[in-house]
Amino acid sequence: MRAHAGPDAWLMMDGHMGNNPQATWTLEVASAVATALEPYGLFFFEEPLHYTDPWGYAQLCKSTTVPIAGGECLTASYEWRVFAEQDCFDIGQPDASFTGGLGEFMAVAKMMQERGRKVATHAWGAGGSLMQNVHCGFAAPNTCILEIAPDYAGLHSEVIDGGLIIKDGHVLPPDRPGLGIVLTEETRRRYPFKPGSGEFNSVPGKILTE
């Protein structure tokens, strides 16, 4: 990819919390992968370890020159503090709609800034979630990149209603009041809430039990 995209492209790799069909990556495996990636100048290496291993993340950050990113599964600033105080991430990835709202996002961003670390918004929900994170990303001085779904529709495009402007690969600051989303009765009818959907589903790395 580096040879194809050139030296200036921002390349990122996702370890998906170190999950694979055989077993979760150990620190040794994650370190070996990070070392192999060092010559390629990655912007960051996302979640090479499981989100329950702050100690492994702290050691990994010290052992490689590749910026380590993570934290999209962490909730509330008190949980983030466990990771921040051990310098587990070079780039934290809070999600305003998952971490606990805009205030908690900003608390996390400040926590990371005080440690000399950056944040990159995680935003893999619908339009309301995306716009929360866009606003927080512009408000936090240590934001390095915004995550934007590459091909959104439905609950993204309808509620955003043209309020997200991307020009030449850059997101422009929102200029609408509030989050800038528009929720109509027609949209509500088209996308009714279905119990057991969304974050209530078990997925690799987040297995929910009763």
Please describe what this structure looks like.
The protein is of the alpha/beta class and 210 residues long. The chain has one domain (2-151): TIM Barrel (Alpha-Beta Barrel). 35% of the residues lie in helices and 10% in strands. The protein contains 9 helices and 8 strands. The protein has helices at residues 2-5, 27-37, 54-63, 76-84, 96-99, 102-114, 127-139, 157-160, 185-190, and strands at 12-14, 44-46, 68-70, 91-92, 118-120, 143-145, 166-167, 170-171. The strands form 2 sheets. A 6-stranded parallel β-sheet has the order 1-2-3-4-5-6. A two-stranded antiparallel sheet has the order 7-8. The longest helix is centred in the middle third of the chain and has 13 residues, at 102-114. It is globular, with a radius of gyration of 18 Å. The model has no long low-confidence stretch (mean pLDDT 91).
Please give the structural blueprint:
Blueprint: H1 2-5, E1 12-14, H2 27-37, E2 44-46, H3 54-63, E3 68-70, H4 76-84, E4 91-92, H5 96-99, H6 102-114, E5 118-120, H7 127-139, E6 143-145, H8 157-160, E7 166-167, E8 170-171, H9 185-190
Parallel strand pairs: 1-2, 2-3, 3-4, 4-5, 5-6
Antiparallel strand pairs: 7-8
SSE string: HEHEHEHEHHEHEHEEH
The oligomeric state is single chain
How many beta-strand runs? 8
- Any idea what the shape is? globular
The CATH topology comes to TIM Barrel
Query: In CATH's first tier, which class applies?
Result: Alpha Beta
Tally the structural domains.
1
- Low-pLDDT runs: none
Structural class: alpha/beta
Number of helices: 9
Distance between the termini: 43 Å
> How much of the polypeptide forms β-strand, as a percent range?
5-15%
By CATH, the architecture is named Alpha-Beta Barrel
Radius of gyration: 18 Å
What is the CATH homology-level superfamily? Enolase-like C-terminal domain
Give the spatial strand order of the biggest sheet. 1-2-3-4-5-6
Average pLDDT number: 91
